[in-house]
Specification:
Elements lengths: L1 H36 L1 H11 L7 H20 L3 H18 L1 H5 L18 H14 L8 H8 L6
Helix pairs in contact: 1-2, 1-3, 1-6, 3-4, 4-6
């Protein structure tokens, strides 16, 4: 048991970055799938939080496909140099769209017209996680990029 604990401590950062990358990518895949499977929900979200920008079904489906692709590539760790900034931009846009709920999740200061929601608070945390992924890219070696770089197929950074 002691050996297992030492193993975990030695590899915790590596495993943590792996989980953060897979979880962040999966979130983008789920958001993208939602735009395909439940277009009306995507339209309602765009109407409520993005000033009505992108409510057209065609645009939602294109952006949904883009999110799915980015999410899958983030999950496997391919082209991180280019996709982590894109991921951060997507997640920052989301956090900015729900800023009132991040600052005042229970609507105690009546920033929002409704009762408020603590469900949007993780938007800030997910964005911060994406920034961590971007900043620690060289330390996350459980990725396709890392394998390709070790084999000499390309330089990912």
């Amino acid at each position: 048991m002691k050996r297992f604990g030492l193993f975990l401590l030695r590899h915790m950062k590596r495993f943590g970055l792996f989980l953060l990358r897979v979880g962040t990518g999966w979130l983008l895949v789920v958001w993208g799938l939602d735009k395909w499977v439940n277009v009306s929900h995507g339209q309602a979200v765009a109407e409520s939080y993005y000033l009505g920008i992108g409510t057209q079904e065609f645009l939602l489906r294109i952006f949904g496909a883009f999110e799915i692709l980015v999410g899958l590539l983030v999950m496997v760790g391919l082209w991180r140099r280019w996709l982590y900034p894109v991921t951060c931009l997507i997640l920052l846009t989301t956090a900015l769209a729900v800023w009132k709920s991040i600052i005042d999740p229970f609507n105690w200061f009546e920033l929002r017209g409704d009762a408020g929601s603590a469900l949007f608070l993780p938007s800030l945390i997910v964005f911060a996680g994406a920034v961590v992924l971007w900043g620690t890219m060289s330390e996350d070696n459980l990725t396709v990029d890392s394998v390709m770089e070790k084999r000499g197929d390309w330089e990912s950074r």
